[in-house]
Amino acid sequence: MAYNYSNKVIVITGGAGGIGSHLAREFSMRGATLVLLDLDAQRLEATMSTLTGTGHHHKNDPTCDWLISPDCRYL
Description:
By secondary structure, this protein is of the alpha/beta class. The protein has one domain: Rossmann fold. It has helices at residues 18-29, 41-49; strands at residues 9-13, 33-37, 57-59. Strands 1-2-3 form a three-stranded parallel beta sheet, covered by helices on one side. Helix 1 (18-29) links the parallel strand 1 (9-13) and strand 2. The longest helix is centred in the first third of the chain and has 12 residues, at 18-29.
């Protein structure tokens, strides 16, 4: 069963590779609005360029480390 996420916002930490990028592609194809976060800005851009779904796609800017509390304000 395929779900429609067109009215949902999905935040994915570690969105530049592995499980995170796979989840981003899957949710994108199902219409979700994505907020992708990662420390590796270049890989994050590469992942963003592969998203072809109907949802809106956002990335963190600047890159942030979620272990550092002040960085969380960028979300």
